[in-house]
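Standup, Tuesday
Yesterday: got the pipeline producing structure tokens again.
Today: sanity-check two examples.
Blockers: none.

Example 1:
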Amino acid sequence: MRRRILPLLVLLLGIASMPTDADTEWNLSEVCPAGFHLKDGACYLQSFYSDYVSLQSSGVGGLKTGLPLLREGFSAQQIDLGRLLFFDPILSLDGDMACSSCHQPARGFADGLAGSIGRHGEVMHRSAPTLWNVGFLRQLFWDARASSLEEQMQGPLFSQEEMANTPTQLLASLQQNDNYRHLFRLAFGESEIDLQQVYTALTAFESSLVSLSSRYDLYANGFHEVLTQPEIEGMNVFRSFVARCAECHTPPAFTNQQIAVIGTPEPDGVPLDAGVQAITGDASQRGGFRVPTLRNIELTAPYMHSGRFKTLRETVAFYTGGRGHAVPKGEHLSLHWHIWEPNLTDHELDLLVAFLKTLTDQSFTPVLPTKVPSGLQPVATQILTH
């Protein structure tokens, strides 16, 4: 009898020492985010565009063109864990910055600045791009130096000018937090937290930020009454072989995911940003940058890699100013072939702006946490104002 009791006591003591759901108020959602459906335990996008063939490699994108491949197939729990991590300053060395510091929901998951603010208040030399539809992108950062979200996020996490953390310190902060140990176990089924799990959770959340329900999307899928006549005319200008906007900003992703040298001016007194050339060493890519999506462009001013233009009207006007008109003296850039002189009228530029505003859609904005597992104050979770 004693031989039977002893193992039972050991088992009971072991169970008693293990964290249980009752040990913490924190749990993770088992429901996929809006726009996604659950299949075989993972979340997959539901979209009108799923029924269309993708022609992203060529053309200007028809109204019923398919989407690029999306990073998907994450569990609902992994996505929800990523949501909490995204707004939690525990990811930064000093506990005062989060991913959401530069990617704020109220500003289209950008930050409304020409140059984001660093750890010590210094101004970064490039703007923070939107994260809407970032899961569709094959290249990240303005200079396309990262090929995955997991690679991209390590830049700000471990940059001394930004969140300034280290891999060792990041893991220690999470491992020492009872709530996060519990939540990572729910999301990944393992007792130990590792860096790849952190990257996966953040990738899962960021890939769930899908914006495909704008008025343009309704129009493209047959609900033509949602756009006004000026907006339709603006769409026709956008897609025309005169303006050629859609050559680079190809619907429905509104980016062709390529590098373009367009000769946009830097802010006054700022030297030319070499862009992709600084990464590849290729002189033909000097001043080249990744073509950004135009989704939610109305919300993400100022524009261009340096935030040079404050308004959409200024931005579209740049493209009709003449080929290379803003290139600094002494610079010889290999401008993209479609940068030329379309000679658009003021009225056509106004129509373009009207059309670009039809791409605004934040209907699938995630629930913004009022508290985070670290106990710190969540960052940039203001109510949307648009």
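Example 2:
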Amino acid sequence: MVRWLIGAVGLGLLATPVLAADPIEIDIGYLHRAAIQSTLSLVEQPTENNGVAGARLAIEDNNTTGKFLNQHFTLDEVRLKHGDDVVKTATTLAGHDGFIIADLPPDELLKVADALRDRGTVLLNAGAIDDRLREEDCRANVIHVAPTRSMLADALAQYLVWKQWKRWLLVVGSHEKDKLYADALRRSAMRFGAKIVQERTFEDTGGARRTDSGVTLIQRQMPVFTQQAPAYDVLVAADESEVFASYLPYRTWDPRPVAGSAGLVPTSWDAAHDQWGAIQLQNRFVKLNSRRMTALDMQAWTAARMVGEAASRTNSSDLKKLVDFIRGPDFALAAFKGQPLTLRDWNLQLRQPILLADGRMVVSVSPQEGFLHQVSELDTLGVDRPETKCKLR
């Protein structure tokens, strides 16, 4: 009897649940502007949760792994309204978030980075593609997830050169962003052996296109605008401001393909991408948001996953350990693009393949075959180490 009681007590002890320690909390901030820029195409209008929806999906992915490591991730979203002080808001957010995913204009990103430098907060730039943020204006506490203009331009140029479409007619918008993209395209043409046979500027006169006579006006205007050009293989448009490029395909004077800001577009992600397991990510995103995943969504997803990957690999929530791992040689992130994404240590830009899409299908992925590099073929896209002007501070 005594033996039986001892056995029963032992079984009772085994059946008693062990109280697990509270999970380690890892908070990630998300800071962005409330303004939404409309697009020419009604089927591509951005939504209010553009970007942050991708970060939320990544938080779910992080927590799936975190259950096994006793880690729990949260996302603190702050949407800036017109007139809000971005530095003050970011400082408040940094009070409890060591990482902040930022979708901000370049100048605001720099202000926030400088204000938070001594606090140890790290910004994950998910939106700004300006090369200067990785070069002469680089900061040691800003990791760049979004590709640069030069990376996008190089990805497009490699494909056009691979196709032997080396003669370009370059059409540039009249806004500053358009001119920056044109600078990147000129650099890419020179880098990979293409020739810009002529440049033209499309002036934004502010006229409305969505009128009863809009289609008729466009159909007459675009052929005239593009006629009498020297012989060219492809029209390359630099129109980040969404003024004219979408009106170019099928309307040029000569029957030529269009690339750049319309037609064949370089992008970090596209809703049509279905290779390397991407279809499961696309489906999960649609199920959660009832819309397709955009490039900004993917960039925000990648930013949040970088933190999750570092936390799982280091089994730590210590900010310094996480940052050191992300910036170190062992960091690599699987992101449904055919090869791991890694970080350039000279300017903290994330290496990544660039998709070339036409709005319905992914046509190709750069870097293209035959464009070689002694370290990584991904470094054929954008500013390479010997070219960099960055001095991290």
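Quick observation on example 2: The chain is about 35% helix and 15% strand. The chain has two domains: 22-147+268-352, 150-267.
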